[in-house]
Specification:
single chain, 225 residues, alpha/beta, Rossmann fold, Helicase, Ruva Protein, domain 3, 2 domains, five-stranded parallel sheet, 8% strand, elongated, P-loop_NTPase, Chromosomal replication initiator protein DnaA
Length: 225
């Protein structure tokens, strides 16, 4: 088998990402949002918005809520249908600021939520003032939602993320290697995800465990991206 073919096989290997309540890493930057999700259905208002950067844990938190609430999942094209059908089944609206929703369908769904007290959890990367909608209709409704922001992770959380994501891939990595990575990487949850994927590929291509040398190589590759 050629090196290129071998590398392609390595890139195609999949893994399961655990996204249960027990797998969610609670810290000072997300504990309020997590507590709110876990308090469902005892919400003071039907609508909730969780804002955070890419890979900050929004989708994980949203899926925890969706399972607990038995929520329907909205998307471009079916949000209008969910609003028209009505009812009080909870609805998950992910990436409300960038997923291609028509403004009118999202507006109708939020109106129906307010009218019938239908629980809705929305996620977004940006604050509502930055959402790409032409009128103030959607934004004015979203301002009535309970809002939570997920902030940048600290060293402890970044280390915990490495441990979890390596475990998802059934990889055992020396804690000293993880400390080495945390002390030198770009400080974001998204970077942890990218590094774990890259380290897994490098380890497989070399046929050996993830060492500090491989970690250093991965950091250089990521810095040159």
């Amino acid at each position: 088998m050629s090196p290129q073919a071998k590398e392609q096989l390595i890139l195609d290997l999949g893994h399961d990402v655990a996204q249960t309540e027990d797998d969610f890493m609670v810290c000072s930057g997300n504990e309020m949002a997590f507590g709110h999700v876990m308090a469902f259905p005892d919400w003071a208002a039907p609508m909730t918005l969780v804002v955070g950067a890419a890979k900050s844990g929004k989708s994980h938190l949203a899926r925890i809520w969706a399972r607990r609430a038995g929520a329907a999942v909205a998307g471009p094209g079916n949000a209008e249908t969910l609003a028209t059908e009505g009812g009080r089944q909870p609805v998950l609206v992910e990436d409300a600021d960038r997923n291609g929703y028509e403004e009118s369908e999202l507006f109708h769904l939020l109106n129906q939520s307010m009218r019938d007290e239908r629980p809705i959890l929305m996620t977004a990367r940006t604050q509502p003032t930055e959402w790409p909608y032409k009128t103030n209709d959607v934004k004015s409704r979203v301002r009535l939602a309970a809002q939570f922001s997920l902030t940048a992770p600290d060293d402890i959380l970044l280390s915990q993320m490495f441990v979890k994501l390596f475990a998802d891939r059934q990889l055992s990595v020396d804690p000293k290697v993880i400390s080495y990575l945390v002390g030198r990487m770009e400080r974001s949850s998204e970077e942890v995800v990218a590094l774990v994927e890259l380290l897994d590929r490098l380890s497989l291509s070399r046929g050996r465990a993830i060492t500090r040398a491989i970690a250093a190589e991965a950091l250089v590759i990521r810095s040159e991206r």
